[in-house]
Amino acid sequence: MKAIADLLEAARAARAAGNLPSAITQQSAAIELLRAGTNPLALAHALRHRADMLIGASRAAEAEPDCAQALWFYAQVPEAPPLDIANAVRCAACQAEAVGDTAGAIALWRDARTRYARLTDLFTTMTGSPANPGVAEATMRIEALGGV
């Protein structure tokens, strides 16, 4: 477990430093170890973060399997945190948008917006503000894509 935590921390640090190739390599190594384990939530979380990194590195097409797998793993765990699921849907929306799948992106952004809207109380607790940044971002992206 320490090896996984160390790899995930190295990936986080590399990403924060702007070194996406290194971050992706470290995250990928952690994912391989997580695949051998029994924690689907940790695997889903790691897959989502690698997808975010791939999208950020202009490799969005490569992120599609990670998005799909993260959502699948979250669906297998009834107690999966709703914010994590909303964030995974957001990631999938970003991926669809980045590869030019406008209809898919709009549908995913709508799903993300609905999920984030259910979390307004959580955002208020986290930020001290009644504003919901997830809903705001999703609405902005839907409108920018020509959706309503």
Overview of this protein structure:
This protein is mostly helical. It is built from eight helices and no strands. It has helices at 2-16, 20-35, 40-56, 60-75, 82-98, 102-117, 120-127, 133-144. Helix 4 (60-75) packs antiparallel against helix 5. The longest helix has 17 residues, at 40-56. The mean pLDDT is 96.
Q: Care to count the β-strands?
A: 0
Report helical residue fraction: over 70%
Query: Could you say which structural class the secondary elements and strand pairing correspond to?
Result: mainly alpha
Distance between the termini: 45 Å
Q: How many helical elements?
A: 8
Based on CA atoms alone, the radius of gyration comes out at 15 Å
Low confidence ranges: none
Major β-sheet annotation = none
Strand content: under 5%
Q: Specify the overall morphology.
A: globular
Average pLDDT value?
A: 96
Task: Give me some keywords for this one.
148 residues; mainly alpha; 0% strand
How does the SSE layout of this entry go?
Layout: H1 2-16, H2 20-35, H3 40-56, H4 60-75, H5 82-98, H6 102-117, H7 120-127, H8 133-144
Helix pairs in contact: 1-2, 2-3, 3-4, 3-5, 4-5, 5-6, 6-8
Condensed summary:
This protein has 148 residues and is mainly α.
